[in-house]
Design brief:
mainly alpha, 356 residues, 11 helices, two-stranded parallel sheet, disordered N terminus, 56% helix
């Protein structure tokens, strides 16, 4: 063999080796890219569904059939893409386990996810989307407190058929449509800002993780921290602009308007007002001497949690808008960690686990 032929052979072998090494890298990129698409679609479509339900454009519950159809179509596309981009050897090289049992639980959506088979790339895609869907549903239930029970299929603990468990969901905020009101403008702002914040956190950390860094290194990276700080500032700015001085409260005051003008009757709760008294609920007012009067003194309210649902010990209370914003920020951080540790099997665990 001539020297030129020898060099050509070595070069060709080197290219082949590089290509072989690049396949798992491409697989990892496709997993990140497509699961980000899944997360963005789920959050935005289901969030929009609740926004529309709040103002009476749809009846609910969310996700409604039209929204679910869009989610199903997205999941099908992602499954097909990962099947073509991630052959089994690449998944093994990347460290993905041959099981979907990321957490042991007896009931609810997490037990459904844990029982899924993972024998093909398509099954792995279903597994990852199942776990991520449970986390995303939990996040939306936190953001849209007045629809938390609906978004979680009627249960907020580990038995929920759609949500990962909310650690502290008592007292449950009043479950209601907020109507075309200032309170709903605030809720819509919380939803949109929270969704954008979670997506921004994911994108910054995923970009770092694709460079081969583990979670600790990414969190210590100054570029990543700058991106997270910027996103956190946007979260705070949007919510404060949309909510003004509203304070979170699980059961805001209301007046049951019955008859003409501002006439009212005292109702035990909103259901008693609408079903038994045939009245109309007016939030932010009280029945005073037979007339619906605005609540005087203090800030206006937003139907929300009195304790952050991601609080493992259920200590502390949410009394101000600043504390609400902190809850959204910390919840987004923890949800992002639990989803990223599934996407990056090595260096991002234990998984799933609270970031705290």
């Amino acid at each position: 063999m001539t020297r030129l032929a020898y060099v050509a052979t070595i070069f060709a072998l080197g290219l082949a080796a590089s290509a072989a090494q690049a396949e798992p890298v491409n697989c990892q990129k496709q997993i990140i890219k497509n699961l980000l698409k899944f997360k963005k679609t789920y959050l935005k479509k289901v969030g929009k569904c609740v926004d529309n339900q709040n103002v009476g454009k749809i009846a609910g519950p969310c996700p409604d059939p039209a929204t679910q159809l869009k989610l199903d179509a997205t999941e099908t596309k992602i499954r097909l893409k990962l099947e073509s981009s991630c052959p089994a050897p690449d998944l093994t090289t990347l460290g993905f386990p041959a099981t979907c049992a990321y957490e042991t639980t007896g009931t609810g959506i997490e037990s459904t996810c844990a029982a899924l088979p993972v024998t093909t790339p398509g099954e792995l895609a279903d597994c990852l989307m199942c776990w991520k869907g449970a986390e995303l549903a939990e996040f939306l239930a936190t953001l849209y407190a007045s629809h938390a029970s609906e978004l979680c299929g009627g249960a907020l603990d580990e038995t929920s058929p759609s949500c990962s468990e909310l650690d502290c969901a008592t007292p449950l905020p009043t479950q209601q449509n907020l109507g075309d009101t200032g309170e709903n403008d605030c809720q819509k702002g919380i939803g949109k800002a929270g969704i954008k914040h979670l997506v921004s956190i994911e994108k910054a950390l995923e970009k770092c993780g694709l460079l081969g860094n583990n979670r600790a290194a990414c969190l210590a990276d100054t570029v990543v921290q700058a991106a997270l700080d910027k996103s956190e500032l946007k979260l705070e700015t949007v919510i404060k602009n949309k909510c003004g001085n509203r304070d979170p409260i699980p059961d805001p005051p209301f007046c049951c308007r019955v008859g003409i003008g501002n006439s009212c009757s005292v109702a035990a709760d909103r259901n008693d007002c609408e079903v038994n008294l045939g009245g109309t609920v007016q939030n932010g007012k009280t029945c005073n001497a037979g007339s619906c009067d605005p609540v005087g003194g203090g800030n206006q309210k937003i139907t929300w949690w009195s304790t952050c649902p991601r609080n493992d010990t259920c200590d502390g209370t949410l009394d101000t808008l600043d504390e609400l914003i902190t809850c959204v920020d910390e919840t987004a951080d923890e949800i992002a960690h639990e989803m990223l540790c599934i996407q990056f099997p090595t260096g991002w665990g234990p998984c799933p686990a609270d970031a705290s």
